[in-house]
Structure formats: structure tokens, C-alpha cells
Amino acid sequence: MIAGLIICVLIGYYLLDTVALFLNLRYLKEEVPPEFAGIYDSSDYRRSQQYTRAKAYLEIVSSTIMLVALLLFWGLNGFERLDLWLRGFGWHPFWTGMVYIGILAAARELLELSLELYRTFVVEARFGFNRTSWQTFAVDHLKNWSIGGAIMFGFLAIVLGLLQAFGIQVWPVAWLVTAAISILLTYLAPTIILPLFFKFQPLPPGELRDAVTSYCRDQNFSLRDLMVIDGSRRSSKANAFFTGFGQNKRVALYDTLINNHPVPELLAVLAHEVGHFKKKHVLQQFILAQLSLFLAFWLASFCLTWPILFATFGVTHTSYYVGLALFSVLIQPLGILFGILTYAWSRQHEYEADRFAAETTGDSSPLAEALIRLSKDTLHNLTPHPLLVGLRFTHPPVPDRVRALRALHITANHR
Q1: Orientation angle between helical segments 93-118 and 78-87, nearest 10 degrees
Q2: What is the sign, positive or negative, of the torsion defined by CA atoms of 129, 131, 134, 140?
Q3: What is the DSSP string of 356-402?
Q4: Measuring CA to CA, how many Å separate 118 from each of 57, 111, 127, 209, 381?
Q5: What percent of the chain stands above pLDDT 90?
Q6: Nearest alpha carbon to residue 302 among 165, 179, 171
Q7: What local confidence, expressed as pLDDT, does residue 395 receive?
Q8: How confident is the model at residue 244 (pLDDT cuts 50, 70, 90)?
Q9: 311 touches 393 (CB < 8 A)
């Protein structure tokens, strides 16, 4: 019964997501939205729709492959076969568990690798976005696997070690240790991890640096570093982001963003990110992440040694490491529902940050123009279907954000 329920939920969401993607394609409009009149010509707009179609078809293929792989592995009793094979080596349960989960994680990575290759060197290249060389792609993935493997090893070593030594009742300690690791990574990411992939250089003196420095000072927003990141080495798409907490905050502007936008638009984009901090969105999202992690550990405490769960997946020997693997499948439906709720919350945060940027810069036009220009440069889908927005979007559709900004009627002439 439980197996049927899990399968129904997994297939049900897959079908819902696939239907949303197809509805999204049918929802594409021939006419350019009014907010983008004069920005998109008919050729560029058709190209953006072609890009939307290409991405949608790849996403459908990707989700199909991942679902079929999971159900096939389950149907062939793979969880049990892999466990029995590793048990045959006579290792300590701790090391058996580390290898067991490592093999499953590596298999998933290999499946995703082929899809990522096609996405980068076929889809992104076809539409002129990809600037990643084969060497850079390979080195990036080796670094990703090394760092991700080290983090996963540390996490599993702590969690499995605690479970093996003290039993399932130690789950609150495992949660606290995991939360501490996530906080540590937040501090390490801007100074140690990200520089392994990108080159960071201080933003040179000039109009942009003066404008950003003055704005941050006016908003009482401490900023440790203002950096330029060499995003153009991998993609023509532009971006900007903040990392860190407290006095360790760092803002990074992609060189492609700086090259394609005037100073008022760049300042508006940065003001939007500052708005997330000032409105406590970053703190709220962090607390939510820790609460969801707590909920996951709490639910796991009931499931890791639950005989029915092991029987559902055809596993005869109860163990914490297999329990973790099975629980990761069992929790997917809950994670999907949780994601839909948090995405809705995130979209509300984006509107609030947009309003903050408009009010603190004294003009809503630069951010609206920046969003329009970014959408055009990245061939963004301007008319996403509401169902797909609800299922996947952490940001509201750009036309909605532009309309909301213009409705504020905040202009430089009315400061």
C-alpha cells in the first residue's frame, strides 16, 4: 500500500509538472506584452519562444529519465542488491553505509552529467549563451564533485557515526551539527569556495563604485567587499548576488551585468538585493531552511528503522544508511508540497525587495528597465503559465514585476 502511494505521488507530480510545461508552451503569445513594446522586435521575441521550447523539452526528458531510473532501480530490487553486495565485503557498518550512499549519489550525478552536457553545449550554445569551454566544464565539475563529496562525506560521517554509536534518539544532536555545518558554509562560501570557480576583482574606482558606496552608507548597510566576477567566461547571461552575513557581506556583480547596464540600473539591482537584507528576507529564509531541516530529521527518526519502509523497497536488513537512502525517496512528496509554499513566499519577497529598491533610490524606473533589459538579453519567457509559476517560480514573472513597479509612481522628478 505504501509503495503504491509513493509511486502514485511521484508519478502524479511528474505528470502535473509535465502538463504545466506543455501548458506553458501553449500559453506563449504571438504579440509582445505591452511592457516590452519597443524593446523586443518580432525576431527576438520569436527567438525567446524557441528558447523556452528547447528548455521545456529538455526538462521533460530530464525529469522522465530521473523518474524512470528511480522506478527501474526500485523495481529491480536495486536497494537490496547493492546492500547485500557491499555487506559481502565484511566492512564495518559505518563504512558500508558511506560507500552505499556514495554509490547512489555518484550514479545520480552521472545521469545528470549527460543532461548538463547537452544543456550547456547544445541548448545554451544554440542560442548564443554558452561561453564555457570543454576544459572549464570538466574542471568545474571536478571541483564541484570534490567539494560536494567532501561536504557529503563530513555530513554522513557525523550523522551515521552518531546513529551507529547512540541510536535514533540522537537525531536532535545530528540536526544541530548539520545546522552548524550549514552556517559555517555560509561564511566559507564567499571567501573560499566561490573563488575556486570564479575570479573576483575589486570594482575599480569610478561612478558605479561611488554610487554603490554612497547608497550603502545612506542605508546603513555594511559591505565588506564590492567585487566584479568573470561570469562572461562561462555565459553571456548577467547576474548579481550577495553572500555572507553580518560584517562578512560581499556583493558580486557579473562583468556581463556591468557591461550591459547603465549605473542607475546597476544601482537599482543592488538596492533590490539590499532590500532582501533590510526586509529580513535572508534571515527568514535561513530560519525556514533550518526548520525544514529539523522537520526532516524529526520525520527520519520515525522512518530510519521502520520495518514497513524497508519491506516496501524490498530490503531485508534494517540499517541506518539504507534507511537514509529510502527516506530521501519517501520525503520527496512532502518536499514538493513544501517547495510550492516556499516559492509563493519567495515571490512575495521579490515584490517587497522591488518596492524597497524603488523607494530608497527614489525612482522605480531604473529597476523596471533593468528587468526588461535582463529579460531581453536572456530570452526570458514573458508569459509563463500560472500553473508553472506556482510549481517552480521563486520570482514573479517579469511583466508582473514591471507593472507593480510602475504602479508605485515613484520617479526621480517626484523625490
Answers
A1: 130
A2: negative
A3: HHHHHHT-SHHHHHHHHHHHHHTT--SS--HHHHHHH-SS--HHHHH
A4: 12, 12, 13, 38, 21
A5: 46
A6: 171
A7: 94
A8: low
A9: no
* Three-state secondary-structure class, residue 241: strand
> Residue 52 and residue 46: Cα distance in Å, rounded?
10
pLDDT of residue 415: 44
pLDDT tens figures, 350-364: 999 999 999 999 999
At 224, the pLDDT band (50, 70, 90 cuts) reads confident
Extract the C-alpha cell encoding 375.
Answer: 529579460
Q: Which three cell numbers stand for residue 99?
A: 560507500
Name the residue among 230, 267, 244, 287 with its Cα closest to residue 369: 267
Cell of 121: 553545449
Domains of the chain: 2-130+277-414 (no CATH), 200-260 (3.30.2010.10)
Residue 62 CA to residue 56 CA, distance in Å, equals: 10
Tell whether pTM > 0.85: yes
Query: pLDDT (tens digit, 9 = 90+) per residue, 336-355?
Result: 888 889 999 999 999 999 99
* pLDDT band at residue 380 using 50, 70 and 90 as cut-offs: confident
pLDDT cut 70: percent of the chain above it: 95
CA angle, 86 as apex, 299 and 78 as ends, to 5°?
65
Distance, C-alpha 226 to centroid of its chain: 23
- Burial degree of 72 (CB within 10 A; 0-12, 13-18, 19+): exposed
Give dist(CA 375, CA 187) in Å, integer: 31
Cα gap 337→326, rounded to integer Å: 19
Dig out the grid coordinates for 406 from the structure.
510602475
CB contact at 8 A, 48 and 39: no
Q: What residues contact 401, with CB distance under 8 A and at least 6 apart?
A: 350, 351, 354, 368, 371, 395
